Amino acid sequence: MFRVCISSGSRALAQRPPAATATAPLHTSAVCHSVAKVRKANSLRARKANIAHTGARVAEAEAHRPSVILGTRPGDEAKWDRCDLARVLVDETALRSSTDMVPARLPIGTVALPPQFAYGVDAPERQLLFEALPNAATGMARSGVAHKAVQDGKSEDWAAVAAQEKVELLKANLLAKALDLRNANAAGIAFENRRRIIREFSTPENPFNPGLTEVQVALLTYRIRNLWTHLTTFKRDVGNRRALRQLVHQRAKLLKYLKGVSLARYDTILERLALEPDSVEGELVI
């Protein structure tokens, strides 16, 4: 009987679960959750820093990106004033600032000529209008007086010749005032600017070649700048914004074609028009 009790007690002790001791493993779920939380916070902080850094780089690039309309970088607008296109255009402010004429000594007398002529009057036309034609008129008057004197058998009446010279001098002064560029309206000044651009950007072999690619690009740049000045003044003119975009993309197409034909001509025309390569290449967002 005693043996049976002892064996039953031994089995009961063997089946009893062991008591928790100090050497038992700890529960680590709270520690793992805390570590994951720290890692997530660090990752979020690094992501925000990367986004801020990328935004700063994009903003800096945009601040130094050239204008797709004007072609110059911010703060470098003086490059336009030094280029060939700006040099040949009519400065309307300086043109309207004075009404003085330039006296010129001609065979018929002193004629007050304007500082700038309109309607495409260059040196050959000035020589024809103010020298050749008046001289021809006075020469015809002298011949008429001499012929009449021979027919009548009288002395030559040089008073008629002097009167004709005065008339020709008066006509030359009136014509000079009529041909003054300061009398032209906006269309007249635009015509003079286009004429100057074609002459400036044509080749020596063909001094007036409006179909040359460089001439077409220069004319488009002139139109783009005029339209941009208009839109900055009249901000509600929405209709002309589409025209501005069309002109900008048309210029970019011509420059892309010119770059494929001759890289040297492409670089030269960009320099002469004060255009940065980044303003005419790639995607143009206006």
TrEMBL record:
PROSITE patterns for the chain: RIBOSOMAL_S15
Superkingdom, taxonomy of origin: Eukaryota
Signal peptide extent: none
Q: Which GO terms describe its molecular function?
A: structural constituent of ribosome
Taxonomic classification: Eukaryota, Fungi, Dikarya, Basidiomycota, Agaricomycotina
Recorded family membership: Belongs to the universal ribosomal protein uS15 family.
Its name, as the record gives it, is: S15/NS1 RNA-binding domain-containing protein
**A single GO CC term, please?**
cytoplasm
Alphabetically, which GO biological process terms does the record hold?
translation
A Pfam family per the record: Ribosomal_S15
To which species is this protein native?
Hypholoma sublateritium (strain FD-334 SS-4)
Is Ribonucleoprotein there in the keyword field?
A: yes
Per UniProt, which keywords does this protein have? Answer: Ribonucleoprotein, Ribosomal protein
Per its UniProt record, what CDD domains does this chain match? S15_NS1_EPRS_RNA-bind
